[in-house]
Amino acid sequence: MPKVKLPRKSTIVDMTAMCDVAFLLLSFFILATKQKPPEVLTITPPNSISAKVAPEDAIIITLTKDGRTFLMLGDDAKKAEILDNLNSTKGLQLSPAEMAKWKKQQFYGMPLNQTKGLLAMSSPPSPDKMPGIPTDTTNNEMTDWMRSVTNVYAGGDQSKLQEKLLVKGDNDALYPSFKNIKAAFKKNEIYKFRIVTNGTPVPVGSELYNSSKAL
Questions:
Q1: Is the torsion defined by CA of 11, 17, 20, 25 positive or negative?
Q2: Element (H, E) at 194
């Protein structure tokens, strides 16, 4: 019998649809992913085994090893209200143009009496050249910032505000600087906040390790 010849078929695969799906997924992740908030200065927080995730709209107080304090307001809508309240209660007399420029800043680390001079600059100084928000016992301006924060969040669930309040201190920062931040909270009847730490694994053989393995 004669040998039957099977027709040859093309092995070319059309990848157009696959490429379309890949680019759609890539576009989705680029648009949906929230970037990590910029750090004011590089610091080394203490270690802990806590694994809680910080909220995206957190109010972060950064304490450097040399005792300087910076503030970052994560919620843009509340941020504008906090700055308006601070301008009003402290009598800063900032113009609408100055307020608009102030609200665009990512963090704050200057005494309030230097705000006008800062906003008059073409660009703000780098964090390493800023003196930080005064938090000493004679002039603790963090109290004023926290008062405006509590004024804006008044009437809401205070437990949610406490979850937003984060203190990120360098491991080498002295305790008196941290104590002054606590004093600013206390004067505004804020008794709970969270401390940012570097996460570390649970020590093997510890009580927490054994209890987690038993679950």
A1: negative
A2: strand 194-195
DSSP helix/strand/coil, 48: strand
Where does 9-159 show beta strands of DSSP type E?
A: 47-48, 59-63, 69-73
- Pairing relationship of beta strands 194-195 and 198-199 according to DSSP bridges: unpaired
In sequence order, the β-bridge partners of residue 71 are: 61, 108
**pLDDT tens digit sequence for 98-115:** 999 999 998 999 999 999
Measure the CA angle with vertex 9, ends 7 and 12; round to 5°: 170
Q: Is 82 exposed, middle or buried (0-12, 13-18, 19+ CB in 10 A)?
A: buried
pLDDT at 12 over 70: no
For β-strands 59-63 and 194-195, DSSP reports them as unpaired
State how beta strands 59-63 and 165-169 pair: parallel
Q: How many of the other CB atoms lie within 10 Å of CB of 179?
A: 11
Summarised one tens digit per residue, pLDDT across range 22-76 is: 666 666 555 555 444 555 566 666 666 556 677 788 999 999 999 999 999 988 8
Report whether 186 contacts 212 (CB < 8 A): no
Exposed e or buried b per residue across 107-119, where buried means at least 16 C-beta atoms within 10 angstroms of its C-beta: bbbbebeebeebb
